[in-house]
Amino acid sequence: MGEEIRVLYFGTARETTGKNEELLTAEDTADLRHQLIQKYPALGKIPFRMALNKELLKADAPLNNNDIIAILPPFQGG
Amino acid sequence: MGEEIRVLYFGTARETTGKNEELLTAEDTADLRHQLIQKYPALGKIPFRMALNKELLKADAPLNNNDIIAILPPFQGG
Amino acid sequence: MKNRYLVRGPITPLLISELLTLGNDDAGTGAVSIFIGRVRDDEIDGKRVNAIEYSAYDEMVVKEADGITGTIKSAFSDVRSVIILHSTGVVRAGEASLFIMVTSGHRDHGTRACRHALEMVKERLPIWKKELF
Amino acid sequence: MKNRYLVRGPITPLLISELLTLGNDDAGTGAVSIFIGRVRDDEIDGKRVNAIEYSAYDEMVVKEADGITGTIKSAFSDVRSVIILHSTGVVRAGEASLFIMVTSGHRDHGTRACRHALEMVKERLPIWKKELF
Fold first, then answer.
1. Strand B68-72 relative to strand B3-9: parallel, antiparallel, unpaired?
2. Do C84 and C68 form a contact (C-beta atoms < 8 A)?
3. Domain architecture of chain D: domains with CATH
């Protein structure tokens, strides 16, 4: 049921989840987002975007096995 | 008959007059401009502004003894 | 340097001197526009910032910075080279964490491209900071 | 240096390194905006420019550059320091003849002030050039 993906956490999402990365199974990014907020309720309170294989997502997308999803709080470089 | 002033030449005005500076006598800047073009006809062909005691002139002005007038072709710094 | 866009620790004066020599052999360059970002000792909630620790999604930084460089070069035809460098790890107050340099034939495209690159760096590079007090 | 705005000959990489350290002790500076103007090896009437010889009305340069610095500081309140340096005499193609550096708390005033200073330098400083082939 769903694809096995690697999820990377950055910025405050690292502190919120206590993890740099983990393997999860999800149907698509909407499903993943839902699971993440269930698993880490505090993650529901910080604004974040997702990148799929280094490409910033503008809308929810399907997932494939071995995809890499990054959880990206607002950028703060500069 | 007029005030004795020091006239400084810069940029192409130096090449045109063959001088870095000279002492001249003039009533005011309009009179000076007229004299200069009489003396150095080629100076009438290059656009130049004048500075009176390091202050760029926006209009003709009276002169006093020992004033310094600079003949300034268009600036080219940078 | 971790890759061509990221360096571990501060961007030191020595490194900046070296970066400035890039493009010195291009006598068609008439304008060099540079922006250096430094860590400020701001006061936050009554505490003075001592340093900032930067973290980055390295691989995506490379992809995005490649994109920024390409966008700049297409948008400003007079631009001859673009260098973007950002720190990761700890950078203390007063030290530099960002260096952008654009060389161009003339000043107009160069100064605008440098400012544009700066805005895109802030908007598009996946980099985060954490203040240390 | 002939005065604080004019230097005889090119603005060398060593001099630029030194200028960059000015303001390094001000940890309230978050942005350093720099413009470096260089002599291009342009082709004019089929001849390649080898160098430019700059001449200046030194005393008036000081007065005008003081004015530019004052104008910049009043117009951009976040600006902390302004450095303007121009060459006189011979500067060869590839060498720098102009250096402008603005330090500021944040990027917005700094980048705009640097560009504004550059435009005013071109418009207001009594400096002339002569191409050498």
1. parallel
2. yes
3. 6-22+29-132 (3.90.1170.40)
Q: What b/e string do you get for B40-78 counting C-beta neighbours within 10 Å, with b at 16 or more?
A: beebeeeebebbbeeeeeeeebebeeebebbbbbebbbb
Measure the CA–CA gap between C104 and A34, rounded to whole angstroms: 48
Q: Which of residues 43-62 of D touch B (CB under 8 A)?
A: 54-57, 59-60
Give the E-state strand segments of D39-94 in sequence order: 43-44, 47-48, 51-56, 79-92
CATH fourth-level superfamily of B3-72: Beta-grasp domain (3.10.20.30)
Between CA C36 and CA D35 the distance in angstroms is 11
Residue D16: half-sphere exposure toward Cβ, Cα within 13 Å: 26
ipTM, two decimals: 0.93
Cα angle D105-C17-C80, degrees, rounded to a multiple of 5: 90
How far B35 CA lies from chain D's nearest CA (Å)? 23
Contacting residues of C for D36, CB less than 8 Å apart: 31-34
* Secondary structure (3-state) at B2: coil
pLDDT of residue B1: 65
Which chains share 3+ C-beta pairs under 8 angstroms with A? C
pTM of the predicted protein model: 0.95
Q: What average pLDDT score do residues B17-40 get?
A: 96
**Quick check: do D and B touch, 3+ CB pairs under 8 A?**
yes
Is residue C11 within 8 Å of C88, Cβ to Cβ? Answer: no
